[in-house]
TrEMBL record:
Gene: coaE
Keyword Transferase: yes
Keyword vocabulary terms for this entry: ATP-binding, Coenzyme A biosynthesis, Cytoplasm, Kinase, Nucleotide-binding, Transferase
Reaction(s) catalysed (UniProt annotation): 3'-dephospho-CoA + ATP = ADP + CoA + H(+)
The protein's name in its UniProt record: Dephospho-CoA kinase
Organism: Paraburkholderia unamae
Length: 206
């Protein structure tokens, strides 16, 4: 399967762009959804989380107590690493399974932290970065999540820089001021045709 890794900073428009590919019949594998699912009630990460952190981190319904875990890992880097040592391999294997089982000419894997975490870049065939200015990110996320400017800036500070994401990209969708669903639709359509061609070439070789 030909795999595109879709990335971008918070509020850049990853979900918006992924939806436009999905509308063209492209299967989407979303690593955020997978991360949520493995820590949902009786998700595959829960036994290990209970063992490593204690039963008090498991909510009565069998899901991870997210508020409690957030508080813990916020101030404790080693706890964050322990949690990630459990979740990251599971996210990776679930992503690989969903990618294998996807039906389509190619698949898009949405990986917000593609540049930041580990070996994602080597495990996709091509990286598509959604790009916009930091000011645009701030405005969008303040509106979408009702966050303060400082809250958004704190999240952005933990992510890779705009330059690092652009450096990792094979393709870029510019989603800044002036971009509308219509202009994004044109950009996505052009990329879709490119990806179809590349996927067909790959299939010929296989
Ligand atoms: P991400 O998935 O990268 O965090 P989203 O696709 O959720 O970003 O976009 C962030 C917010 O900005 C959403 O509320 C979305 O509807 C809005 N948005 C995205 N692109 C545009 C645009 N070109 N014009 C106006 N609003 C946009």
């Amino acid at each position: 399967m030909f795999v595109i890794g879709l990335t971008g900073g918070i509020g850049s428009g990853k979900s918006t762009v992924a939806d436009l590919f999905a509308a063209r019949g492209v299967p989407i594998v979303d690593t955020d959804l997978i991360a949520h699912r493995i820590t949902a009630p009786h998700g595959v990460a829960m036994a290990q989380i209970a063992q490593a952190f204690g039963a008090e981190f498991v909510a009565p319904d069998g899901s991870m107590d997210r508020a409690r875990m957030r508080t813990l890992v916020f101030g404790d880097e080693s706890a964050r690493k322990r949690l990630e040592a459990i979740t990251h391999p599971l996210i990776r294997s679930e992503t690989e399974r969903e990618t294998r089982e996807a039906n389509g000419p190619y698949v898009i894997v949405v990986v917000p932290l593609l540049v930041e975490s580990g070996t994602w870049k080597t495990r996709v065939d091509r990286v598509l970065t959604v790009d916009c200015s930091v000011e645009t990110q701030i405005a969008r996320v303040m509106r979408r999540n009702a966050f303060t400017r400082e809250q958004v800036l704190a999240i952005i500070a933990r992510q890779a820089t705009r330059e690092a994401r652009l450096a990792a990209a094979d393709d870029v969708v510019v989603n800044d001021n002036g971009a509308t669903l219509e202009t994004l639709g044109h950009d996505v359509e052009a990329l879709h045709q490119t990806f179809l061609t590349l996927a067909a070439k790959r299939a010929d070789k296989a």
